[in-house]
Amino acid sequence: METLRTEQLRTACNRDCPDACGLLADVQDGKIVRLKGDPVHPVTQGFLCHRTSRFLDRQYDPERIVTPLAREGSEFQPISWEDALGRIAEKFLKARHESGPTSILYYRSAGSMGLMKHVTDAFFERFGPVTIKSGDVCSGAGDAAQMLDFGNEDCHDIFDLDHSQTIILWGKNVYVSQVHLLPVLKRARARGVRFTLIDPVWQQTAQLCDRFIQPRPGGDTALALGTARILFENQWYDSNAESYCDHLEQFQELANSRSLETWARLADVPVADLESLALSYTQQPAATLIGWGLQRKRNGSSTVRTIDALASISGNLGIAGGGISYCCKRRGAFDLSFTTGLEEPARAIPEPLLGPGIFAAQDPPIRVAWVCGGNPVAMLPESERIAEGLQTREMTVVVDSFMTDTARCADIILPTTTMLEENDLLGAYGHHWLIESRPVVAAPDGVKSDYEITQELARLVGLEKDFSEDVDTWKRRMLQGVSQQGASLDDLRQGPVRNPLAGQIMYPDRKFPTPSGRVNLVTDVAAAPTPTTELRPLLLMALSNHDSQASQWVNGTRSGPAVARVHPSAARSFVDGSLAIVESELSQMTVRLQFDDRQREDVLLLPKGGWLSDGCCANALIPGEMTDAGGCAVFYDTPVRLLKLPAKPTSH
Ligand SMILES: Nc1nc2c(c(=O)[nH]1)N[C@H]1C(S)=C(S)[C@@H](COP(=O)(O)OP(=O)(O)OC[C@H]3O[C@@H](n4cnc5c(=O)[nH]c(N)nc54)[C@H](O)[C@@H]3O)O[C@H]1N2
Ligand SMILES: Nc1nc2c(c(=O)[nH]1)N[C@H]1C(S)=C(S)[C@@H](COP(=O)(O)OP(=O)(O)OC[C@H]3O[C@@H](n4cnc5c(=O)[nH]c(N)nc54)[C@H](O)[C@@H]3O)O[C@H]1N2
Ligand code: SF4
Ligand SMILES: [Mo]
């Protein structure tokens, strides 16, 4: 018997994740038989997260869409690419001619973080400019805070944590959402570094920490200000802070505006937690890593600003092992000057308000919608409204590989490549390595990448010239700013390369690219009233979980009812494991209760990413609302209550 030759090919994970891993695929006879983490990649270190270690189930899922589909009544029928793109081009030209280009909505999310996706942005910019989204439901509030405070947003090198004495994980669930930070943290732990986790939700990272502070959701502002008060009172703050921080006095007044007891009560933690945190900031260098969850709240941006200020006055900025790291500048190495218009769009709908926004847009109304790299019906607030919005356009096009909640609303579905068939470049928001992705297998016949689709559509609408180049030419163009510094396409083809433009530490000279050149300390924050009410005493938090990448689940785990975790005292009239209804102001959903006495009594936890069509979608309960700055979505401030299921009539 002839044995099949196994080829090992290298590529990258393009999922919306801080880690941007290197992948190794074993390919036999055109089929991938094994996927693992690339041991050569300094951050990936040869292992994958649970969800991507199961990616081959997705790659070879029989339910994958491999031909364009067109709606006929409530069904979809296969059509040819020629027919599909012909109908789309005709509709695009007609809508633009009759109503202007803003009658077309282009929505792209981060289903793939590949840089080539910006080429599709450029197409819509040149064909239009069309209507796009503004803000960012993922990280917008924190991004705005960092820009306002420091004039820039980037992180210390991930391995700079090797120099820390203290690590403060402010709302980060590393075991779920950033697993490749774990080896670095465990190494620090073994060195005796002091760890604090601040999270209203008990999660596994607590086990890594010396101290777990569990404030009420949104209590972080009070916690940070109370801690700052202790630093000021004990002269533990940096006596040089005045030289690189604006508004030091006002910030001190803000911190002193309430007693320690009041701050602790507002945060719902003992005063001892404030004292412990203050002490941590004096055990320098202290690194603060801010997670993404805590800014998806009504006051999310000012919360991040108070944490920025606390870390700043403590004297931990600009030193090895210190700093305040939120999001690495994942696009920082790349020249994206071929697309500029998206920053000043002709018209934009705030992403958290996409559903109501589609209906509100007038003069012209949205006639055509194009959705790619996202499942907004499942993932954005007011799911039902988004579904309705997409279903009621003259034409909605969805580019995806699966029949998602959003694809179900389409008139035309265009099947696209998976990450193992992609040809692209990536940066990461959790570290500074750049990586190239290369197809390890060919896409099935009848499946095209976003760029191939863009090229064909461009040909039909008279923009062929702008999009005729091959992918390598685009890659070289995007790398032109770093290609002389060891990050050319040829270099990347040899393996991952650290972004030569990224420093090891941020602001080593304590000069900041703000207008004054100094840190802009926050001077005023709204004391967040608790959003829960007597009627609805629980806050709904639908968080990242092991088994899914947003709405992309590993096989077999997405059928309802969704599991809702609560403290037993929050559900006294229910038993563990029973069914219940979760009700918000907007809607209701049936869940199965799971008691967890490590949780606070004022939260109800659901997995993020449940599907509307499975009755598991948390976002159907969440009203569309924007954070105080940056256009992030207020995902975790929805009050809910538990209700009994109506009794089934007994049959005789
Ligand atoms: N397995 C898995 N991994 C993922 C994803 C996924 O869907 N599944 N999603 C990816 C995406 S899209 C992103 S943006 C990243 C980041 O993904 P996120 O899941 O946003 O990551 P975290 O930074 O861990 O932030 C979540 C943590 O913030 C905490 N938190 C919520 N509210 C508060 C608060 O008021 N105060 C404090 N202190 N903490 C709070 C939550 O309890 C939770 O532990 O990870 C990615 N990683
Ligand atoms: N309630 C609640 N809602 C949340 C969150 C939360 O914590 N709670 N988190 C929010 C966050 S942080 C984020 S980032 C968003 C994520 O929301 P989305 O970005 O909508 O995330 P996904 O569900 O992963 O959808 C990505 C889709 O893109 C497809 N895809 C993958 N690769 C490609 C490609 O190359 N081309 C095309 N055209 N499609 C591709 C996938 O098949 C998938 O269906 O959700 C947000 N929604
Ligand atoms: S999803 Fe994140 S952790 Fe998992 S393989 Fe991809 S980049 Fe790595
Ligand atoms: Mo995200």
Question: In words, what does this structure look like?
Answer:
The chain has 652 residues and is an alpha/beta fold. The chain has three domains: 69-137 and 331-498, Rossmann fold, CATH 3.40.50; 140-326, Dimethylsulfoxide Reductase, domain 2; 538-643, Barwin-like endoglucanases (Beta Barrel). It has 19 helices and 29 strands. The strands form eight sheets. It has a six-stranded mixed sheet, with helices on one face. Strands 25-27-26-29-22-28 form a six-stranded mixed sheet, with no helix packed on it. Strands 10-9-8-12-13 form a five-stranded parallel sheet, with helices on one face. Helix 8 crosses helix 10 and helix 8 packs across helix 12. The model has no long low-confidence stretch (mean pLDDT 96). Bound molecules: ligand MGD (2 copies), iron/sulfur cluster (SF4) and molybdenum atom. Molybdenum atom (MO) is lined by residues 16, 138.
Beta-strand percentage? 15-25%
Total helical segments: 19
Alpha carbon gap, first and last residue: 65 Å
Mean pLDDT: 96
The CATH topology assignment of the largest domain is: Rossmann fold
Shape call: globular
Number of strands: 29
CATH architecture of the largest domain: 3-Layer(aba) Sandwich
Q: Which consecutive residue ranges, at least 5 long each, have pLDDT under 50? A: none
Small-molecule binders here are: ligand MGD, iron/sulfur cluster, molybdenum atom
What fraction, in percent, of the residue positions are helical?
25-40%
Category by helix and strand content? alpha/beta
**Quick one: CATH class of the largest domain?**
Alpha Beta
Looking across the biggest beta sheet, what order are the strands in?
5-4-17-16-15-6
Main beta sheet: 6 strands, mixed
